[in-house]
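Severity: low
Component: inverse-folding endpoint
Summary: output formatting inconsistent between runs
Steps to reproduce: submit the following structure tokens with default settings.
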């Protein structure tokens, strides 16, 4: 049977992490899945702490992320740079 690889990405605060923990717990009941959680390195300690309270066997991996902010239609960060960093991180899976 093929193992489903499931990646969730969140900010790292309790509001983003606890729903992922709940979904992952249910997925673990339904079959064999490879579960991973990514969050920005700024919130890594918080996300790992929350996961440790509920599910300590799911890896929390840190990536370099950030908000793509746009002010009055002008981007102050390069989307191509953001996409390139994310693509490099995704190749690790």
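Observed output (run 2 of 3):
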């Amino acid at each position: 049977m093929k193992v489903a690889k499931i990646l969730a990405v969140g900010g790292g605060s309790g509001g983003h992490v606890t729903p992922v923990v709940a979904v992952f717990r249910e997925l673990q009941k339904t079959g064999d899945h490879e579960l991973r959680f990514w969050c920005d390195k700024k919130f890594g300690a918080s996300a790992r702490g929350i996961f440790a309270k509920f599910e300590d066997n799911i890896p929390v991996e840190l990536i370099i992320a950030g908000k793509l902010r746009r002010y009055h239609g002008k981007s102050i960060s390069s989307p191509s740079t953001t996409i390139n960093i994310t693509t490099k991180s995704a190749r690790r899976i």
